[in-house]
Fold:
Amino acid sequence: MTKQRVGLVGAGLMGHGIGKNIVIKGYPLTVVAHRNRAPVDDLVSKGAKEAKTGREVTEASDVVILCVTGSPQVEEAVYGRDGVLEGMKAGAVIIDCSTAEPGSTMKVSAAIAAKGGRFVDAPLVRTPKEAEEGRLGVMTGGDPEVIKEIEPILHCFADSIIHAGGTGAGHTLKLVNNFIALGTAAAVAEGIATAARAGIDMTALRDIVMAGGAKSVMFERLIQVPLADDDSAAKFAIGNAAKDLRYYTNMAENLPMSGFVAEAVHQTFVLALNRGYRDKFIPRLVDLICEINNVKLRKP
Structure:
């Protein structure tokens, strides 16, 4: 059976792992150049073909994966000059693995359907490490029959695929998931900073939290900052996290839902942006909370 031709728009930290696992598992892959040449060059060395535009990617593909930062970038990739819509053939499937606003998702899906294409929102959980290992988690929104058709491609880079519902449900679920995760990160950072101010040994803090109900993946990641000055367990930029929280608070307001906790968490991340933390990884929230409270986190 001939494998579907796959296109990839967005070979960044997550996209490189997605593309790598698709091409090494035998799918023809076409990728458009990213602002960072290294991931594209590596994919080409593994057998992928490089295109100059999103239109060329779509012309060469049966299935196109978008893996970009957020809704503005998705809309530019789809609607922009030489974009996905210009090259899309009837029956093609567009999979959006970005974290996007559900309202934008519905508009993009309608535009693709108007040209005879099919759309699935399929945002991701986990980190670039799991992307490289082919162990991402995916939430899907869209027609179950289309999702069934593309599942072999999704399984190239994901070991967990959860069907969330109709179009937009994947992106909605992703925003709820990210709010819970980022809210936990903000609470953990504040707790660590408070413990440091009180003179609590960080190893003792780690041991008691990991032995009880406060145990979480985010705690395991953030506690490495005071213990080892290591933020590599969560390679997700604070700027992107703040964007996801803005999407969540906008979505909640439009439902409408009151979101007192969400606004506090969002503003914690906005504060981080204003203090120069945009490109730092999420565990550095610990440093931020210590900094604004004049807490010395590490021994000289």
